Structure formats: structure tokens, C-alpha cells
């Protein structure tokens, strides 16, 4: 129980991310499309999002609890995997 409280306290003390700037010509992909195009499961996507050492594309807040990903960031991330590279 204490680990959870410490974890929440640490989370609350983290600096807030700057508001995302989205190019109006860039599409925003939602989770189902990210799962389909990357071949990753929902849990894997969230695990990679939580890992600060992972180069997984940053999500952008869409309002409320909704998030998405810039298609351009996703495409660059896929391209950085190279031919046959692991996602």
C-alpha cells in the first residue's frame, strides 16, 4: 500500500508536459490504429509509453483522458527500425 502512495506522490510531483502542438496536416492516430499498424498489444503500447528509455512515439493529449499519436511521429519511429528491425 505504501509503495502505491509513494508512487502517486512521485507522479504528482512530476512536471507537466507542455501542451502538444499538432500540425494541422498531420493525422492523429488513436490506440486501435496504433495497435493495428504496429502489431503491438494494448498492454505493450502502454508499457513502452511508461518506459523513459524507450523511443516509442510520444502521445498527445486530446482532452479528458483521451490520447493519440501523430502519424508523422509513428512513421518516423517505424522508419528508424530499419529493414527487419524489431518494433
What's this entry about, in short?
With 87 residues, the protein is of the alpha+beta class.
Number of helical regions: 4
Largest sheet: 3 strands, antiparallel
Unreliable runs, pLDDT <50, ≥5 residues? none
Structural class: alpha+beta
Strand count: 3
From N to C, what is the helix and strand string?
HEHHEEH
Head-to-tail CA distance between termini: 35 Å
Portion of residues in beta strands equals 5-15%
What is the radius of gyration computed over CA atoms, rounded to a whole number of angstroms?
A: 15 Å
The average pLDDT is 81
The share of residues in helices is: 40-55%
Strand order of the largest sheet: 1-3-2
Task: Assign an overall shape.
Answer: globular
Would you give an account of this structure?
The chain is α+β, with helices and mostly antiparallel strands. It has a domain at 32-87. The protein contains 4 helices and 3 strands, in the order H-E-H-H-E-E-H. Strands 1-3-2 form a 3-stranded antiparallel sheet. The longest helix is centred in the N-terminal third of the chain and has 11 residues, at 2-12.
What's the layout of helices and strands?
Elements: H1 2-12, E1 28-29, H2 31-38, H3 42-50, E2 59-63, E3 66-70, H4 71-80
Antiparallel strand pairs: 1-3, 2-3
Any descriptors?
three-stranded antiparallel β-sheet, 87 residues, 4 helices, alpha+beta, globular
Amino acid at each position: 500500500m505504501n509503495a502505491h502512495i509513494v508512487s502517486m506522490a512521485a507522479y504528482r510531483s512530476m512536471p507537466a508536459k507542455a501542451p502538444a502542438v499538432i500540425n494541422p496536416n498531420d493525422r492523429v492516430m488513436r490506440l486501435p490504429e496504433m495497435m493495428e499498424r504496429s502489431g503491438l498489444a494494448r498492454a505493450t503500447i502502454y508499457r513502452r509509453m511508461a518506459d523513459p528509455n524507450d523511443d516509442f512515439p510520444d502521445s498527445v493529449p486530446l482532452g479528458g483522458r483521451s490520447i493519440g499519436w501523430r502519424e508523422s511521429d509513428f512513421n518516423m519511429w517505424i522508419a528508424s527500425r530499419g529493414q527487419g528491425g524489431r518494433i
